[in-house]
Each structure stands twice: as C-alpha cells, then as structure tokens.
Amino acid sequence: MKKMTIYKYSTIYNINRSPLKDNSNMKENEYDNGYTERQTVGSNPPELPPIWVSVFENYFATEPHGYVDLIKWFKTAKFKKSVIAFRTTSDEKVRQRIKRNLPCITPSGIFKTRSRDGLVQHSGFICIDIDHKDNGVFGPEWFEKKKLVAKTFDSLLCASMSISGKGLCLIFRIAHPDMHLAQFDALVREIYEKTGLVADQGCCDVCRLLGASYDAYPYINPHAKPYRGVLKERTARAKVRTAREKELLDEKVYKLIKKIREEKKDITDDYHDWYCIGCALAHEYGKEEGLRLFHLVSMHSKKYYPTDCDEQFAKCLRSRKIGIETFLWICKKHGVTFK
C-alpha cells in the first residue's frame, strides 16, 4: 500500500485538490429555492486537537487517499455548491452523479483498507444516522431535532445535516472503542428512548463511510464526554442444531407467522421490535426466505410499504446478528403463541 499523507487543514484532500474553507463565521445559508437555514445552536467552538480519520476519494474507493481532521470536515463549506445542487434537484440521475463524485471519510478511525480488518486506529468516535424515512421529520423541524439531541447527550461531539438535507449525522465520543457494536446498539436504543428519534441501525460497521455534506451551522461540542453505555442483550450465538431441532423450530416459527396472518396481527408497530424481527429472520433463514417471512410479518402494519420492508431487511442482513429466539419473544409479548 502506498504511504498515506496527512493533509493539514489548509491542504485537506477534496475532489478538486483545492483548500477547504472554514464555515465558522457564516450567519446563514441561503438555498437556491429561496429557503434560508439560520443558526439553531451555539456558535462554533475554539480550535480542537485534530481527530484524524481516513478520507476516501469516493464511495467506491477501497484504499484511503489520506487523513483528515474530523472537526474540519464538518466545518467546511467546500462542498456547499455540490450539496445544494443535490438538495434542489429532483432528477435522480443527477443526484447519483453528484453523490458518487464526492469524497467520504471513515468517522470511526484510520484504515489501511476500507474493511473491518483494515482498521489501524479507532478514532474514539462513532457515527449515527437519523433519516427522514424512519422519522417523518420535515424541513426546519430538523434544526429543532438537532438542538434536542445536543441538549440530551453530553457525549455528542457533532450534529450536522445529511447531504439530502432530510436527516442528521451525529458523532458521539465513546468510552470503549473495542466494543464499537455494543456501544452503537446502546446509543441507538437510548436516542430512541430519550428523543423518540429512530436511528439507521444498518450503519453500525466500524468501517462505514460518511459522504461529504454541508451544514451552515453544525453543532460542535469540544467538551463531549465519553459515552459509556453498552448493550449486549439479545446477541445471537452460533448454534448447531440437529435436524430434529431445526424441524421443531421451523414448525414453531411458521405456525406463529400463520397465526399472525390469520389474525392480521401487527407486531411491528414499535420500530425496534420490527428491526429485531428482521434481524432474527435474516439470521435464521437467510436472504430469500427470511425476506419472504419478514414481509408476511410486516404486511399487517399501517406503516407497511413493500419497498421500505425490502430496504429494512437489507440493513438487517448487514447488521449485528439477533437470534430467532427474539422473534419468539416478541410474538409472545403480543399474545401470539404457537400453542
């Protein structure tokens, strides 16, 4: 692998090889469609010690181009023109072209290759995505949600708008980088419990990419405290079942799903339960049969849309494993038993 370069603030890597500009002194962000985004949180703090993370040329690159300071990445206005163009066009081909040409970072560390095994040093920070699709939040409401999360969590280092302008990217300082997944799960659960916001649980990998975006006033907290929550419950262990045990288990699962369909029972109203059901079915039955069963369980919800169900199951396939016992437990919680 070629020797990586540490790009200082004045020469940070970007698609045009030109310096990034600090966005700290801007008062507002005027969009091409006439909408004005104004400051919603405190002004940007003094300089912080660099938090180095890997930067990649685009979403398809597998080797980093260099390093970049995480705070400088969130404060820059370098990508404003491209991001505003992305937000103000409805042409999906144009949006895809813009997005695939923007650089990306790995917020959780420095990597020699973009893979879990390629991690060289964890940054001590973790990224959580909050999307419009899972939360039904619109426009200026996001600025209020940004303030809510900042007020609720003293471990929040940064909160910034996503490239679509319809979501938030949250960066938390964590106490146990060696327990990345368990801390991710704990944060997702606590964010939901304290703010009602549903996080994208498919973005849990330590090597996940974060594409360039723009926020006129990203929230930045130089005094973020390490988050110490750890969630280990409901973690599936690898199980070796006999043919008879597998047969009995399948009989229970299919009987429960049949009962759900006959009674038109919705056991997926709670997002966390829905996610766990998807993970449990994915873990036990794999991509094709698991997806078929996931649709059968989900289709009686008022929130059910086939495409959303497909996308959620894809996240479940990538995410941390949750055993089929969790599905049985959720069914029992809703009064659905195989007796």
What does this entry look like structurally?
This protein has helices spanning 70-75, 80-88, 92-100, 132-135, 141-152, 180-195, 243-263, 271-298, 306-318, 324-333; strands at 5-6, 28-30, 36-38, 52-56, 66-69, 104-106, 109-111, 119-122, 125-131, 156-161, 167-173, 210-211, 219-220. A hairpin with a 5-residue loop joins strand 10 (156-161) and strand 11 (167-173). The protein has two domains: 5-220, no CATH class; 243-333, no CATH class. It is an alpha+beta fold and 339 residues long.
Blueprint (SSEs and pairs):
Elements: E1 5-6, E2 28-30, E3 36-38, E4 52-56, E5 66-69, H1 70-75, H2 80-88, H3 92-100, E6 104-106, E7 109-111, E8 119-122, E9 125-131, H4 132-135, H5 141-152, E10 156-161, E11 167-173, H6 180-195, E12 210-211, E13 219-220, H7 243-263, H8 271-298, H9 306-318, H10 324-333
Parallel strand pairs: 1-5
Antiparallel strand pairs: 2-3, 4-5, 4-6, 6-12, 7-8, 9-11, 10-11, 10-13
Short characterization:
By secondary structure, this protein is α+β, with helices and mostly antiparallel strands. 38% of the residues lie in helices and 15% in strands.
Tell me the number of strands.
13
Oligomer: single chain
Q: What is the percentage of strand-forming residues?
A: 15-25%
Q: What's the N-to-C terminus distance?
A: 59 Å
Largest sheet: 5 strands, mixed
Structural class determined from secondary elements: alpha+beta
Mean pLDDT: 82
Strand order of the largest sheet: 1-5-4-6-12
Total count of domains: 2
Number of helices: 10
Poorly predicted regions: 1-45, 234-238
